[in-house]
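Researcher: I'm comparing several assemblies side by side, and this is the next one on my list. It has 1328 residues spread over three chains. Same procedure as the others: predict the full complex and return the structure.
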Amino acid sequence: MLSFVLRRVVQSVVVMLGVAMIAFSLFTYVGDPITNLVGIQTSDAKRAELRETLGLNDPPPVQFVRFVGRALHFQFGISYQQKRKVVDIIAERLPATLELSMLSVILALGLGVPMGVYTALHRDSWLSHLMLSLSLVGVSLPTFLIGITLIFVFAVQLNLLPSFGRGEVVHLGFWTTGLLTASGLKSTIMPAITLALFQMTLIMRLVRSEMIEVLRSDYIRFGRARGLTNRAVHFGHALKNTLVPVITITGLQLGSIIAFAIITETVFQWPGLGLMFIQAINEVDIPVMSAYLLLIACFFVIINLVVDLLYFAVDPRLRVARPTAVGG
Amino acid sequence: MSASSAAPEPSRLSEALRRAWDSDLAYSFRRSKVTMLAGAVTLLFIGSALFAPWVAPHDPYDMASVNLLDAFQPPVWVDGGDSRFLLGTDDLGRDVLSTIIYGLRISLGVGFASVFFAATLGITLGLISGYVGGTVDAVIMRIAEVQLSFPDILIALLIDGTLRSFIGPGAHANIAFVVVISAISLAYWVQYARTVRGAIMVEKNKEYVEAARVIGRSPAFIMLRHLLPNVMGPVLVIATISLALAIVTEATLSFLGVGVPPTQPSLGTLIRVGNDFLFSGEWWITIFPGAALAIMGLSVNLLGDWLRDVFNPKLR
Amino acid sequence: MAQPLLQVSDLRVEFPTRWGTLVAVDGVSFHIDPGEVLGVVGESGAGKSMTGSAIIGLLEPPGRIAGGEIRLDGQRIDGLAYDEIRRIRGRRIGAIFQDPLTSLDPLYTVGRQLVETMLTHLPLTPRQARERAIELLHEVGIPGPEERIDHYPHQFSGGMRQRVVIALALCAGPRLIIADEPTTALDVSIQAQIITLLKRLCAEHGTAVLLITHDMGVIAETADRVAVMYAGRIGEIGSVADVIHRPRFPYTVGLMGSIPAIGEEVARLTQIDGSMPRLNEIPTGCSYHPRCPLAFARCTIERPELAPVGGAAVACWLYHDAGKAGAPVGLERAPREASAATERARREPKPLIRVAGLKRHFDVSPPWIERLLERKEKRIVYAVNGVDFAIARGETFGLVGESGCGKSTLARLIVGLYGLTAGTVSYQGVSLSTPHERAHNHAFQAKMQMIFQDPHASLNPRWRVYDIVAEPMRARGLVSSAAETRERVGELLHQVGLSAADGRRYPHEFSGGQRQRISIARALGGEPEFLVCDEPTSALDVSVQAQILNLMADLQARLGLTYLFISHDLAVVHHIASTVGVMYLGRLVELADTRRLFKHPRHPYTRMLLDAVPDLTMTGTRRIPVAGEVPSPIDPPSGCAFHPRCPFATERCRTEVPRPVEIDGSRVACHAVEEARLPDGQAA
């Protein structure tokens, strides 16, 4: 078990370094950092001096190590566009994204799992058919389209909910929250639904297909043959066996909510990290881009690690050793 | 099991056709009205896209035929609509229906191209990985695993953004196509590789493969003639589903502004452009392309779902 | 007269499908008295499992009971509401299924599953239930039950798991157990243990058993009465002695004749041509008439019902038609004479195949980093651990052993599918031990072909039969034109009992037995002299097995083939092989002529194996099943691998690997035999 953890940690570090290399090459080889910093008027001599001071003449490996070192201290440089420290921009926008994502996770899990279980157990009810049709829609439509449709219906036609921004926010220490104001809450509804819909339908379909598969297995049949109640069979045995593989996949899916936030934030002009990233791409704001990459990679690596460990904790076949040689 | 001797032997073609009609595949297709509808819609869309110049009522990119005075016409059933422009016109006077048909062309074109490259790359790597095993397998699977731990859209964005940055803003517009197709292909090859590898690992231990080895066939022969045909089923399912995903991903990238060049808009670009006019009341410029995208995605997904059920041996 | 425990009257089970309604069980009637064991025997597709599922109410939809009655203690139980029948299950009727591996929920401890079942049906407190569970585990023979009760299913071996399954089935005290192929998935020696256990427990608790199986031997040992099913109907039902020794229904006669038995030696097994009809192609009249050598006009029109004949009941016009008096049916088989080929073989000094010191090890160690951090050891599977023997031309060499003994690996070593870790393989004196040598001596290598166990997996489902059969000749360049290929393929198909037109079909259109024929045709296409057969009939029904065994014997006589025949079924090996080798954990423990090995088994393991074979003749010898499980080849015991289970083991056995010794024509690797310590054992 220890070796497993170690192996995964090593793997994670390798991945992080890989991403760091990509971020670093962006930094070094795309455009000219000097030009972006000082503008066109500066003399060549000044530029050369700046080059030296910033250590841009050192060999790439050295620069890379410096880059990594700085990153570990949360020093990501200065945004080309906004002329501010990148880490400040990130700190400003992090709460918006995190809040939205967490709400969506709760929605997706809270609705997706029960719906999946219901449609697996009651395969022929009209409600199941309805849910399945809706799920197909949720899976087939791109996130941005869902967002636009919601805006069209609720903001343009019905004028019920705001179509962009976060509304009023309340500052709590370094965190800003939109959940404590009426306008903030109203602004959160549509983005949260948009973000959650895809994940929710995915989870629902996954839970459903896993559960149908499990309900077919021999031990379920044997359980029924022993006269166990439906409740015991469905929720005690079937559900537990369903959730084991579902946990891991769900964990990964939820991580991708952070990625899909990019789209949702663009549609709703939500001031979060995703919108920041898109703007950075369009403006070729390298420091912001590479900082986002590093942050996101780190986040995913952690999620994957946690998911792997969870799997270990839940499945006794991995925890407890098999019998050796001469059985008892 | 002896063949009847009385009737004359049917030709091989009609025999094959009859078999196909009677097969589980066709039967299941015929039985599900929804699937047939989805199939019909998909064919319709693909047809329109292929024959766009003949199907579309106008050519929206022929600057000569486009008139600014025609701008912002609503759809024909709304007051003030013009029967020349069934679904209305956009801000430059282009017929929305025509832009949709041409946009479909781009969307489907990029979609199919991405699937093709992703499949080729994925199947090849999966075949090798599954059959050869050992270190080669370990390396390929490591890379796949790492890539899988990130969401596809992010990978696509990453590749897209990186390539763009390297190429620089002033490059030729058509490079954007290469960038988008590469980004999507590289994001989705893993599905194919894993599925093929999994199927191969199951098949290669089957006894007919052992028999072929005892007979003395080379590994290449076994891979191509014995294993590959048995693996195509799941691949077909993945291809269909990933076509839907590719279309959606391309639309998303274009919507975000990092997809196909604006001179050759796909449905995603159209939606993005039209989005600006949503609030001023010209909703049709974005809603109709949106609807087209939605229907396309739905139909392809339905087909993929049906294929998956057909190929699932446990549901037989 | 006491009321029967279970009364089934005219049961009918149907399946609506796209091809019409399939009838799986067609008017079946029988009864079971309290405490009695009724066997239901039949080949696959006969409907026996369906009958069992219908009784306990677990038919998979769209299957449904379409007619008839099922009464338990006089009360009707078919057609009950779901919750009522749920209460009956486990409490009054229990069930045991075939595969112990998948019958237990892997995420719950064994104790939890036992307690849960008991609490559902019995008014016990959790503490009482747990105590009872420990008692039960002890009763079914699980050592250390207080500890084992908290273990998970994967921590038990196969045989132990089936014991747990039996405990689970019995824990709520049902009066009837439906056992559906309870021992099919187990090794012979474990099978014997489980059968003994089941018999004892049911006798002690007074539980009746409906024992569903395809294995007549198990029925002979365990059941009081037996029903023979064919195509969804019961053809014959009576006491076990009656049905086995005086079969009346022609199918039963054929069936009994096609089972190879160790007590007798026959040249050819009774063969029932054709196969059981598909459920949607059941013939009118008596469903057996197309295959029945004694069918007459009435059999094709009218369906016979069960009616008493002697002490049994038979559904056959031969006994109930006024025109036919008495039954001409009986078991007739020609005794075996030594075949000419075998005689020739004994005279030829040089063996065709010789293997010496064969070893094959698989390294399944966890990756080194795990071993480093968790101090795990290297794990090596000693699949084949030093095997020597020789096969003469024209001979059939039989290799027997249980799972894990290495016989399949050995087959693949000889043929070249696996590389050798050590030792040599030579064909006609030419060494074929390395891939290089095999490629270099290609002509000799090509004289070996192989036939596999699984008829489904051994043919590429996407290739036509024609291409499958033609592949070896094409690969070896034995044919030069399409016309020649067509001719050869047609010939081969004909030789194995199929027709040339079958070449155009795909494998899935054929039955298991026919697919094995195609496999054989393919192997013959390469013009081999030596065929390695890895359990070629283990996956087939008994009557189909007889067809294939007869075919193989014919081909051997006609083409002068040499066989290496691998099987776990001693009776089959006894029938077909001239020399037999017994393997245990990668080593050959005994090697002798067939007759000698079965009449005078020397090695303790051989004796134990023979003992464990279910006794069709029911001479009533007391069986003493050997204790212990088949160990895994990863960590074989030191010295003689059999010593932990051997009643004659000494200190020497624990430390020293026994060398093969010649005794009276048998080659045995056993210290006790060498030291002449064994009581003189004669097989019955």
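Model: For your comparison table: The radius of gyration of chain C is 27 Å.
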